Amino acid sequence: FSSSSSLTVLFEACISVVRAISIHLIMDDVDLEALVNDMNSSFESLYTSCSVQTESTPLLHNGQLPRHAAYHTHAQPTSPHQRLHRSQPMHILAVRRLQEEEQQYRTSSLPAIPNPFPELCSPASSPTLSSGSLPQCQPSGKYIIKVFSEDGMGKVVEIPADMTARDLCQFLVYKNHCVDDNSWALVEHHPALGLERCLEDHELVVQVQASMTSESKFLFRKNYAKYEFFKNPLNFFPEQMVAFCQETSGTIPPSQLLQNFLNSSSCPEIQGYLYVKEMARKSWKKLYVFLRRSGLYFSTKGTSKEPRHLQLLADLEDSNVFTVITGRKLHNAPTDFEFCIKPNKVRNEVKELRMLCAEDEQSRTCWMTAFRLFKYGILLYQNYKIPQQRKTLLSHFSAPVRSVSENSLVAMDFSGRIGRVIDNPVEAQSAAMEEGHAWRKRSQRMNILGSPSPLHPSSLSGVIHRTQLWFHGRISREESHKMIHQQGRVDGMFLLRDSQSNPKAFVLTLCHHQKIKHFQILPCEEDGQMFLSLDDGATKFTDLIQLVEFYVLNRGVLPCKLKHPCTTVAL
Question: What are the CA-CA distances from residue 163 to residues 138, 202, 517 (Å)?
């Protein structure tokens, strides 16, 4: 009955507290502090009146008795004087006071351990990370990417969300056993718009794919001109097109040309005339245009640079520069050197594209290269340096180490009865040349004596070139132009193909000063043996492989040496 009486007293006290709260709420001037004090005094009086001495029994976190405590309780007989006391209500302030004392005791009893990450703490004594300083969360998971080759065949690749264009190209080079010369690139191709561009090495492939349509696709091809402007900047930036926005004296020195483009504090600009297509129209206007870090502008009054005469044509931050591959007939362009600035939000809307047209190929290359430099800046130079640093690092481990026996090799002459060592290097070189001519005469005598087998070197010389990456068979003149244009159009780019006018001849297609030239390789006969020559028989070769190897080392009658083979790969 003692517990029931306590509950009755508790119930009456709660009713009195509720009544007091209601009275205070009805009144206009509610004193919250007095209300809290009344509640505390009520609960304290209730607690002191109902509190009795109870046995201290350890409890678990869920309020149950431990096993040994339960057994001990049932084992002791209950006497009439002993009463079973239920848990009594405690005041909230008392509970909080006990919790604070317990926390203080735990903290003081533990040894002082220095915080290894003070920057992650939020007290005023330690620095905190602001929202701007936190790194952006990268998307997680795997994504499916389909990459196409020049022959139209595609390959499905599963890549992570943080894979860059360079990483994907390295992966495809490894999977397809290609020659890794750091010239492979991933191309964003839009067939509906007739546009394409080469992705920068640091761009995330998944982010680029998110802005593409279902008809767009990625192409895997060579691009020798990706970083060619770092090697020969004067060929890409004509002196009359480069100037300072606030020029004081003359033009930029050639030694500081690239530094001014890469330095964000400098203010270089590209200036010149461009044909600009009017929005939603087929007409073109010739305007004087300025390309700066802030955007592409045109002057409304001649060649004036005053701010009041400049109007914005395109922004650099949210746009990319593309090459137009559909030709001048589709957009009725005044010249063949067309390019486009496409905003990232635009998908298939041709009306939103900013179509531009240059006077020649060098001007178009200058505008497009400057656009990349202004947008990405030092990132392009870092992308250019990464393969060179990797090559330098690998050269220390992959350098061939010659053995003692190789270092002791000498030239020998076995023409006499006794062999002798050739000490004179000039004599050693002439002996090697004589040995090569003697081997050629021996192979010629073997051809005369009998028909050669299909695996004989003389029969293979007529077809062995077809296995080379630079030979493309019976492609047309226009197809060879398109292939060289797609892969960069830099000095020394070449390919070989069958001649369409002479079935026994071949054609060497070579790029020099952004112009494509063709040289016919004709067969010639000497001493009953057929040779191939590029200069009317002055220099003769047994096959095309020898011819290519010669002109890689020697310019000869060509305007430049053969440097970059124009190749394709089948995925």
Answer: 11, 9, 39
